[in-house]
Amino acid sequence: MTTSEQHILEVHNLGRNFGGIVAVDDFSLKVRRGEIHGLIGPNGAGKTTTFNVISGFYPPSRGRIVYAGEDISGRATSDLASLGLIRTFQGTTLFHELSVIDNVRLGRHRSAKASFLQRVLGTDRAVEQEADERAHEILAFLGMDGLAEELTANLSHGHQRALGLAVALAADPQLMLLDEPFTGMNPEETKRMVDLVNRVRDEQDVTIVLIEHDMQAVMGLCDHITVMNFGTLLASGSPKEVRANPHVIEAYLGSAA
Ligand SMILES: Nc1ncnc2c1ncn2[C@@H]1O[C@H](COP(=O)(O)OP(=O)(O)OP(=O)(O)O)[C@@H](O)[C@H]1O
């Protein structure tokens, strides 16, 4: 296997400025197919900016992003979604006034399986039916099929976050970028979400990169961790290696101080 077959994502010497602020500078990252990869670092380290550039929300100022062997630098989010690169957000982006199943159906349309006109006119019945079946399948996979017709606003926080995962899964991702999936969760909800993320990788064949501040969850879940500080690469390795790295300890103690 060549290195580009092994790595679903390669970020080469990425840079991103906002006016005079250098948010990300000469940052490189490689993500192997099938792994759960943590992107960590103190506040303001450049993690969210990196996600935004990879997922096409901002073009890079410098550097290159290669996904599944293809240079995707500066490509639009909708293009990337149809290639199987899907990103979730820290806050929930669900439609609270819609049912659970309708949210998942909408997630499927992000993968552009039907043309815009077909979607608006609802002319492609086969596409609609397939979206419906897949939406139920995903809810069942997440143990939420019993909630399919429930109003999203009525779900618990934990279920809303799991629904966010269902919406992302509906787009048939190969690579999912999860932005702080455990934020605002109690330990029990975090444990359930950790199990779900593991199952998404194991059973749905999705590679996962996640930004997260809950160190216990990150260390327990990730195969590989990349640490950023001041927009640059600070360390990269197994959870054990990263935890023992004096530069990482210093960066975290410094930020806590
Ligand atoms: N749209 C923007 N305009 C100006 N500056 C920005 C913008 N987005 C990010 N920055 C700056 O870039 C730097 C990196 O921010 P970023 O949000 O990427 O860090 P982070 O590691 O995700 O932080 P946190 O863990 O607090 O979310 C910060 O100094 C931030 O203020």
From TrEMBL:
Keyword ATP-binding: yes
Residue intervals of the ABC transporter domain: 9-255
Protein name: ABC transporter ATP-binding protein
Record key words, sorted: ATP-binding, Nucleotide-binding, Transport
A GO MF term: ATP binding
CDD domains for the chain: ABC_Mj1267_LivG_branched
Highest rank taxon of the organism: Bacteria
Matches recorded under InterPro entries: AAA+_ATPase, ABC_AA/LPS_Transport, ABC_transporter-like_ATP-bd, BCA_ABC_TP_C, P-loop_NTPase
Gene source species: Methyloligella solikamskensis
